[in-house]
TrEMBL record:
GO terms for cellular component: plasma membrane. GO terms for biological process: cell adhesion involved in single-species biofilm formation; negative regulation of bacterial-type flagellum-dependent cell motility. The keyword Transport does not apply. It catalyses: 2 GTP = 3',3'-c-di-GMP + 2 diphosphate. It holds the Pfam family 7TMR-DISMED2. This is diguanylate cyclase. Residues 430-564 form the GGDEF domain.
Length: 569
């Protein structure tokens, strides 16, 4: 609030020595100073506003003399007026008039005061003296003329510089934030925000006349050209940025297409400038800028989807911006003393530049946060879907490898792992023992007690064997009541001992049913070993099967070693 109030305070400092102001419109620009002096002029108070006009305006300024010997600064604003000529009576001068010139079409180095503001330093003859200004500009014909002491004029320039530094610094900081956010979020709206900040910062500098130092005798139209291009570009960047703001909220499709009217106007305006119709380009840009402000309000009230910031927040902001700008534009026409509204010049720059820039930054930040949360939510959903898919894949793989009844390896998986272990043992000359296991009298259990009891028997047998074997051993169900185990890195008496222990563990405890009598179960085991022989796993399984059949014939519940294993060296 202090910054917003500063320009108005600065303008009110010091004593304005102007006694009266009056103007004469010269539509054809043909009047001489003598013609003007002899004509009646129309009084005005502080500010004269005529909008875009091709006319020349003459201003008669009656100034009261300050203290004896003090100089007076005749200050003319805004600083982007093209050509301002001061006429002062001087009997010694040609035709009796001293003429001085300033404006942004004249070299900055030739200004009487090396300041952004347009001014002339004069000595006023007491008690008062009349000065005449001839003003011609392609910019809007809105200006103010003051007569201040040198100290007051310098102070006003000082506060003007302070506000400009505040504005540029704030806008650059917002730009830096936008660039930083873009490298984090990579969102299109951040690119448009950064472009908007750059263009509007340049627009603010142009609006307050700080490009004046670029003016040279060799290219007098340079400042006007820069100002015009920036002014036209400001409309385009504002439209592009606001369109991107509205897009996710799903406004009415026809209103979104309406933005194309503003966008397509830009190339035509640039063509008009190149063709020498810069006045037409600037007037159309000014009209589009006014229309765009109210078009944003219409679009805001057509939003269908609610995001963050909410639709109502957007509506309130764009409506407030339209009201503020409408009040400024109407005030410039209807109120002579624009200072009474505290919206002239720099105030408008701060309100429309810094405040809007801060809101846009907050809006973009909110959009980025919302987008980041949406991205995180989508990534979380993707991760969840991936984890579910992986779990299904693991489940499918487990089911493909596992016997559904006992939870052991199925025949295919067992054979695959056993063949790998056999290949390793042969390569490194390590012991390899294979056990083929069969539940004794299992068919009788199924026939007399049913398949459900048979399943319980198989599950218990599988559990007892698995708990007795080591973790490194390979154990699986190869079919029906048959199981197989590879005793890894073990051979000779130790492997035989493990096989006998398996028979004992299974036979030791009866299997308790949920209903019915306990069941005693035994197993028979056929054992074979590789003993360094170059042999296939299928051949070993056949040897173990033969030993298993021998165990069955010998009375069951025992271990029999294959003849090949016994005969092997």
């Amino acid at each position: 609030m202090v910054c917003l109030a500063t320009p108005a305070t600065a303008q009110g400092r010091g004593e304005d020595l102007v006694v009266s102001r009056a103007y004469i419109e010269d539509p054809g620009g043909v009047l001489s100073i003598d013609d003007v002096v002899s004509r009646a002029a129309v009084p005005f108070d502080a500010v004269l506003s005529k909008g875009f006009s091709a006319s020349v305006y003459w201003v008669r300024l009656r100034v009261r003399a300050p203290e004896a010997g003090a100089r007076t600064v005749l200050l003319i604003s805004p600083s982007f007026l093209n050509d301002v000529r001061l006429f002062r009576r001087d009997p010694k001068a040609a035709q009796g008039w001293e003429v001085r010139v300033t404006g942004n079409l004249h070299p900055f180095a030739e200004r009487e005061r090396k300041a952004v503001s347009l001014s002339f330093v004069v000595g006023v003859s007491p008690p008062q003296e009349d000065f005449y200004f001839r003003i011609k500009t392609r910019s809007p014909m809105t200006f103010e003329v003051q007569a201040l002491s040198v100290e007051d004029a310098n102070e006003q320039d000082y506060w003007r510089d302070i506000i400009e530094v505040f504005f540029v610094t704030s806008m650059v900081l917002l730009l830096i934030w936008g660039v930083h956010q873009y490298f984090i979020d990579k969102q299109k709206i951040l690119i448009l925000f950064c472009i908007y900040q750059i263009v509007y910062t340049l627009y603010g500098i142009a609006l307050t006349g700080y490009f004046a130092s670029l003016s040279t005798r060799f290219f007098p139209e340079l400042i006007d050209l820069i100002n015009a291009i920036i002014y036209i570009s400001a409309v385009l960047t504002s439209v592009l940025f606001c369109r991107e703001i509205f897009r996710p909220y799903k406004p009415h499709p026809l209103l979104m297409k309406g933005f194309l009217v503003f966008i397509l106007a830009f190339p035509f305006q640039m063509i008009a400038m190149v063709a020498g119709y810069s006045d037409l380009a600037i007037i159309s840009a000014a009209l589009l800028m006014k229309l765009a402000v109210f078009y944003y309000v219409i679009v805001a009230f057509s939003l269908k989807k609610d995001l963050f910031p909410t639709r109502n927040m957007l509506r309130l902001f764009f409506l407030s911006m339209a009201v503020a700008n409408g009040a400024f534009w109407a005030g410039a026409r209807l109120v002579d003393d624009v200072r009474a509204m505290s919206l002239i010049g720099v105030q408008s720059l701060i309100v429309d530049g810094f405040v809007v820039g801060v809101f846009f930054a907050w809006l973009v930040h909110g959009r980025s946060q919302y987008g980041r949360r949406e991205t995180e939510r989508q990534l979380h959903m993707i991760r969840q879907a991936y984890e579910v898919e992986q779990e299904r894949k693991r489940q499918a793989e487990w089911e493909a490898r596992t016997d559904f009844l006992t939870g052991l390896l199925n025949r295919r998986s067992f054979v695959d792992l056993a063949e790998r272990e056999l290949a390793r043992s042969l390569r490194y000359q390590r012991p390899f023992t294979l056990l083929m296991i069969d539940v004794d009298h299992f068919k009788a259990v199924n026939d007399t007690r049913g398949h459900l009891v048979g399943d319980v028997v198989l599950q218990n047998v599988a559990r007892r064997i698995k708990e007795t074997l080591r973790l490194i051993d390979i154990f699986g169900r190869t079919g029906g009541e048959e199981f197989a185990a590879v005793i890894v890195e073990t051979g000779g008496p130790e492997a035989l001992e493990i096989a006998r222990r398996l028979c004992a563990v299974v036979a030791r405890d009866e299997i308790v049913q949920p209903e019915g009598e306990p069941i005693g179960v035994t197993i028979s085991i056929g054992l074979t070993r590789s003993n360094g022989r170059s042999i296939s796993f299928s051949a070993l399984m056949n040897e173990a099967d033969q030993a298993l059949y021998a165990a069955k014939r010998a009375g069951r519940n025992q271990v029999v070693i294959s003849q090949q294993a016994l005969g092997a060296p």
